[in-house]
Amino acid sequence: MGSKHPNARKIVFSYSPMCSLKLGNIGSLVSFNSESSKMVTKRQVEVVIENGNIIDIGEKLGDADSFIDCGNNLVTPGFVDSHTHPVFVDTREEEFEMRISGLSYQEIHDRGGGILNSTKLLRESSEKILISKVKSRMDTFLSLGTTTVECKSGYGLDTVSELKSLMVIDKVNKKHEIDMIPTFMGGHDFPIDFQNDKDAYVDLICNTMIPKVAKQGIAKFNDVFCEPGYFNIEQSKKILETGEKYGLHSRMHCDEFSCFGASKLAAKLKVNSADHLMEIDKEGMDRLAQENIIGTLLPGTTFFLGMKKYAPYLELKNKGVEIGIASDYNSGSCNIQSMPFIITLSCIYLKMNILDALKASTIIPSKSLRIDDSVGSIEKGKIADILVWGIPDLKHIPFSINQPNINLVLKKGKPVFTA
Length: 419
Ligand code: NIG
Ligand code: FE
What we know:
By secondary structure, this protein is an alpha/beta fold. Helices cover 35% and strands 23% of the residues. The radius of gyration is 21 Å and the shape is globular. The structure holds N-(iminomethyl)-L-glutamic acid (NIG) and fe (iii) ion.
C-alpha cells in the first residue's frame, strides 16, 4: 500500500472472530447518524463489535476481548460502491488509444467496438476463468476500502452468458469477504445478431432472460442502458417493468451522453437509482427531485473517457436530489476501482465537499441498494464494516491521491486488509 502518512501510527490488535473487539484511540469517527439524519463527527469515542455487529459507540467503554489501537486516526464506514461491471475477461486498452487519437466512446461503439468487444470474450470464457478474474478484482476493491459492491452482468447479452455472469458473481460472493450485490443487465447493449431487429432482443430479455434470471434467484436488481444508440425509452420501460414483475428492483443508466428523457422515465418508474446524469436537463432534475429518486454520479467515467462535461452535481443538490457516487468500474469506459480516488474526482470536478462525498459513498449508495438498515454507517446494530485510516481527518482523503492511506479494513468486524 506504499508509505504511510506521517501522522499514521501502527495499529496494534489481536483478533478472534467469536469474541468482542474494541476500537480505541480513534481521532475522529465520521459517519451518517440516523437519529439526526446527518453526517456526524465524533471525537475520542470507542466502538465495540461483537459477532460482526456494532454493539456500542461511546466514551470510555468497558474492556473487550480484543483491542485495536487506531492511532488517533480517522475512522469511517467501509465504502459501498453501487455501480460496477466487474464480470469481464480483459480490459480494452486499444479503445483507450483510439479515444486519445480522437474517436469518441460512441464512435467506437458505432464501429462495432465497446461493450460488444467484451461480449465476444465473455461468451468464450469459462466460468472458472471468470471466477478467478472477478475474485482478484474483489481483492482489489477490499484493499481500497470498498466493503460492499454492486456487480452487474451485462457483457454476456445472451441467456446462457448472462446466467453464467450472475453465477460467477454468486460463486465469488459466497467465498469472498466482500459483499457483492448482483444486478442483471441484459439491457446493456444489443448483441451483434440482433442489430437489425432490436425489439426482438428486448423480447428475448423480457420473455426468456428475466424469467430465467428470476428462477436462478441470484440477481436483486435489473439495470438498463437507456441512451440513444442503446435502449430507447419504450424498450427500457418494458425491460424494467418486466423485471419488477419478476421481483427485480430497477436501476438505470440515464442521460450519460445525450438527454432524451431517460431521467424522466427513471422518475416515472421510481427506480432505485438513476446513474450517470452527465447530460440531464432541468426537467429531468425536477422529476428526480419530485419522486425522491437517488442520483448516482460516476465522475470516474467522465474522467477516464476524457470528457469535459461532468454531471451537474450542485444543481441536482440544490433541487434536493439525494446524490451517491460510485466507480462504474468496467472493462472499457472506466478502469477505476478506488472510491478514495472517486472522492478526489468528485471534489475537484463536481465541487462536492468532502463530508458530502463520504455520505455519497457510504449511506446513500447503501440506500439505493436497499441495505441501509444494516450497512453504510457506523451505528449501533449495524454490521461492522469499518475503515481505520492512516490520516488524521477527512480532508486528507481527496488530497492523498497517490495512495488511499487506509491502515485497516474491517469487514463484519474481521480485519480483512492491513496496510
Ligand atoms: O456505465 N454505460 C454503460 N455501461 C458502462 C460502460 C461499459 C463498457 O464500456 O464496457 C458505463 O459506462
Ligand atoms: Fe455502468
